[in-house]
Amino acid sequence: MCKMDYPRPCGCKGRRTCLHCEAEFGIERSDFYTSFQNSESFVYCPRCNKIYPGWDWEKILSEHADTPMHGGTRGEEYPGVYIDLDFLSETEETNLLHGLDELPWDVSQSGRRKQNFGPKTNFKKTRLRSAQFAGFPRVSEFVQRRFEQVPLLATFQTIEQCSLEYAPERGASIDPHIDDCWIWGERIVTVNLLSDSVLTMSPYRACPDGKTKYNLHFLERYRDHLLGELMDEKAIAACENRVVRIPMPRRSLLVLYGPPRYQWEHAVLREDIKDRRVCLAYREFTPMYLEGGSEFSQSEDIFLRAKQFWDQQPAIVAS
C-alpha cells in the first residue's frame, strides 16, 4: 500500500505524482491542464510585453510579426514580467549543461531531478542554516555575473541556485504554487535550457478558512520594499477566471516580480514538456535577511558563502 504522505521511490509524495508512481500505485493525478481549459486563457508576448487571448504561445508569438501586430488585437497589460529571449548563446548553453551533467542529480517530486546549491531552509518552522552550503559550481558563475547587466537585477544577490530537470518520459511537471515568502525575495529568476516550455499562471485563491499559504503573511513585513505595485481587489476579481501563459523559450531569462510573484500561482504543466528541459532557478533573500534587516545575523555567513564558486572537483552538492 502506498503511503501518500511519505516519499515514494520516484521522489514524489503527497499529491505530487509522476508517470512512474501513477502506474505503480494507481494514483490519479491532478489534471490542471484540463481544469485550465475552462478558464479564459491569455499568452504573454515578450516582444511587446502584453497579453493576448489564446493558449498556444508559439502562435501568439508568431502573430507579433503581423502588420498590424497580432492581427490588430489590442493587448492588455500584465506587469511584473521580464524576458530576455537571447540571454545565452548556443555555445554557452552547451558548456553549461556539460558542466552541470558532470555533477550528481537527485530525484525530486513530480518526475523532476534537481541539483540544489544553497542553505537549508525549513519553510514550516521558518528556520535557516548554512549546513553544507559552500557556494556555487564555477561552470555557472558567468550566468550570475551576467545578471549584473540586467537593470532589473542590478541589486540581486543570489542565495540559492537550483538546477531542475524536466523529462517527458517521467511526466515531469510542477503544480501551481507561489514560492515561499518568508525567505525568498521578490524576484524569481529562471534561465531556460535545452528546450522551449511555458509557465502557466493562475490567480491565487486564499483558503476557505482564511489561512494564508506559502508564508504569504510575511509579505506585510516588507511590502514597502516591493519593486512592483500589487493588484487591488477590483483588479484581482477581474482575473478570477483567467490563466496567463508565459513563454520560456530555450536560452531565455525570465524574471517574475510584483503581482505575478505574490498574487498568481505558477505551474509547469506536464503537457508542455516535449523534450528534456533544464532550468536554473535563482532566489534572493527577503528584505528581513538583507543587510540592515531584522534577521541579518542569521544570514550574514550565508552571504559570504554565496560569493564562492568552486571547481568541479571536489564538488559539494547540498542535499
UniProtKB/TrEMBL annotation:
Gene Ontology process terms (BP): demethylation
Q: Which organism is it from?
A: Anopheles farauti
Entry-linked InterPro entries: AlkB-like_sf, ALKBH4
- Record-linked SUPFAM superfamilies: Clavaminate synthase-like
Protein name as annotated: Isopenicillin N synthase-like Fe(2+) 2OG dioxygenase domain-containing protein
Cofactors (names): Fe(2+)
Extract one GO molecular function annotation from the record: oxidoreductase activity
